[in-house]
Amino acid sequence: MKAAVFKNSGLPLSIEEIEDPVPSPTDMVIKVCACGICGTDLHWSEINNEESGFRDIHPGAVMGHEFSGEIVEIGKDVTNNWKIGERVCAMPQIGCAKCSNCRAGRPHRCDKALNRATPGNPGAYSEFVRIGAQETFRLPDSVTFQEGALVEPLAVGLHAVKRAKITAGDNVLIVGGGPVGLSVAVWCKFFGARHIIVSDLIADRAEKAGDFGATGFVDASVSNVPETYEKIVGSPPSIIFDAVGIAGSMQLSIDYISNYGKVVVVGLCMVSDRFEPATAVVKEVEIIFCFCYEHADFQMTLEMLAQERIEVKGLVTESVGFEKFPEAFERLKQPSNQIKVMLKPH
Q1: How far is it, in rounded angstroms, from Cα 213 to Cα 170?
Q2: Which CATH number fits domain 2-152+293-343: 3.90.180.10, 3.40.190.10, 3.20.20.80, 3.40.225.10?
Q3: Distance of alpha carbon 273 from alpha carbon 251, whole angstroms
């Protein structure tokens, strides 16, 4: 099959022929119909082993963990009445299906989990991909493949907002207006936050932020974020979501937050960082770290998409085939007004 292969840090992805995936008895294979480019993949492709604070990605790996498609092969022990041709999306990890974490819907916590872009488990920047039956969800008829591939980043936002325990009337600042930040905005609006202000260095994202629930936007390239926020809202934010994942952003959030506020770190910083605990201590700040999502987050996201209770139209700003994919991937490493770029392998 055709796939976009990681060659090394600093090099573009290479479109190559690799082996087709083969399902284990409890897995399935799908034809990939849409797969989004995630900021995590962009970071992985640029950070070498010595710099990474997360996990290594090795030459020859295939990334891609935001995907949807059609079932083309089913393992012999798969249950739940799956059928060839069914439209699905899936959590990217393949868990053991037996441990307490898998049973609780947290395959990313499984000690035996297979993650994407690891040896023997290519991701969905490819024509076909292997998925775990337990981590798979049927797409409702009204949900498109493109929307199905958005379930993963939307579930990241939902998980973060649930961890923050957003309540009606909360005043929120979201640092970063990319796909994760806008996903957070979608769910802040859903749960009734009063003021939802997005800050970003790219002014062109202001309109997009409003489309997905933001009540205001701060152009961080020209404005003092905390001062502008207070002019709009009248007080500092009670909850800040750090959705950029770069060194220094957590300290800025601590500086901006109100006394007794919450800083929710959802952006994945892959290098060492430092912050001053004293400021957080004096303010009695609650710092919450978020990672991935749970089975229930995927399920709720799909249900809300099917019921049209969340708005995601316009989140995908470009779709490309394999021939233009390496170029599109490289472009996203530079500041732009793009939000979510999708690979359409077929």
Answers
A1: 14
A2: 3.90.180.10
A3: 9
Residues 6+ apart with CB under 8 A from 160: 184, 187, 241, 264, 266, 290
CA-wise closest residue to 136 among 180, 95, 183: 95
Q: Which residue has the tokens 């309109």?
A: 207
| Ranges of each domain in the chain | 2-152+293-343, 154-289
Are the beta carbons of 192 and 167 closer than 8 angstroms?
A: yes
Predicted structure pTM score: 0.95
What is 154-289's CATH superfamily? NAD(P)-binding Rossmann-like Domain (3.40.50.720)
From first to last of the 346 residues of the chain, give the pLDDT tens digit.
999 999 998 899 999 999 999 999 999 999 999 999 999 899 888 876 555 555 568 899 999 999 999 999 999 999 889 999 999 999 999 999 999 999 999 999 999 998 888 878 899 999 999 999 999 999 999 999 999 999 999 999 999 999 999 989 999 999 999 999 999 999 999 999 999 999 999 998 888 899 999 999 999 999 999 999 999 999 999 999 999 988 999 999 999 999 999 999 999 887 888 999 999 999 999 999 999 999 999 999 999 999 999 989 899 999 999 999 999 999 999 988 899 999 999 9
Kindly report the backbone phi and psi dihedral angles of residue 88, in degrees, each rounded to the nearest multiple of 5, phi listed first. Answer: -145, 165
Q: Give CA–CA dist 60/213, Å, rounded.
A: 39
**Cα gap 240→172, rounded to integer Å:** 6
Alpha helices (runs of H) in the chain, residue ranges in sequence order: 39-46, 100-103, 145-164, 179-190, 205-211, 225-233, 249-256, 277-283, 295-306, 325-331
C-alpha Rg value of the chain to the nearest Å: 20
Q: How many CA atoms lie within 13 A of 169 on its CB side?
A: 0
Q: What CA–CA distance (Å, rounded) separates 162 from 186?
A: 12
